[in-house]
Here is the input.
Amino acid sequence: MGWKVAVVGATGQVGREMLNILAERGFPADEVVALASPKSIGTEVSFGDRTLKCKALEDYDFRGTDIALFSAGARISKEWGPKAAAAGCVVIDNSSHFRMDPDVPLIVPEVNSAALSGYTRKNIIANPNCSTAQLVVALKPLHDEAKIRRVVVSTYQSVSGAGNAGTEELFSQTRAIYVADPVENKKFTKQIAFNVIPHIDVFMDDGQTKEEWKMEVETQKILDPAVRVTATCVRVPVFVGHSEAVNIEFENPLAPGEARAILREAPGCMVVDKREDGGYVTPVECVGDYATFISRVRSDKTIPDGRGLSMWVVSDNLRKGAALNAVQIAEILIARHLKKQAA
Here is the structure.
């Protein structure tokens, strides 16, 4: 007997990607339920070679559902996550709401899958921020080898990280510029077409944005609380795929060649690093892929004794940054923690 899985927010970009990945990876589900808001009742979404019709979240009874993948925003997760968990359903939540709750494990399977056992405290597991997920996949094997002290990261985040509205705004603004129509800002604070915006999420009292704060505290929770992180997060006119320029200071020396060799063997990592024209990965090339791609690995000569590296990290934010990570968590959950009697 297989599992019953619900996808909450099934009409959104990440929800649709969750359904795609469940099908692609052959997740052993006997039943998959697509849930969304009442206005989306009956909306059809793809699940492999099948089509599912959306049901209303507010009318759904989670009893008998084994796992729910939530991707409908923090407000929905705050209200419905605990209700689903109380009904005996394990919630894997993609929003920011539960990430820093000490009783909720924040999981990237390649990095800290052992922490997944803590899900029993609330029956809820948190997915990290999309930019954090790809960062820690690349950092973990290097941290194990040379112990990271400090990370400085600048992100170049695609508009799909802001949902359907972000993608639509880039498209509509680009079209407007080409046909000389007025350019309207609705989702973003400034024009995103042919521009970059150093502002993601709200500003905090110390001057950093919440997105930058998330990268700091989530990396520490997932990887190591002793690692210091500072981030600058930038929205760029790319439809899908987040990129990061990462500078790392280690406690012990680590040469670029050693780092490349370690990363080539690390789960979830793909090294493409040729010191020639085009010998690196860009966001366009990572779309639809599961891997976190690493390029431009080189020494930082401003850090003495060979203890500094810089590198370029790219990943599909809708996949590893969200949907894939959630499905990987569900796979580990059923392999190691949940029990179901065979028919």
Observations:
- Residues 3-128+323-336 form a domain with the Rossmann fold fold (CATH 3.40.50.720).
- The longest strand covers residues 148-157.
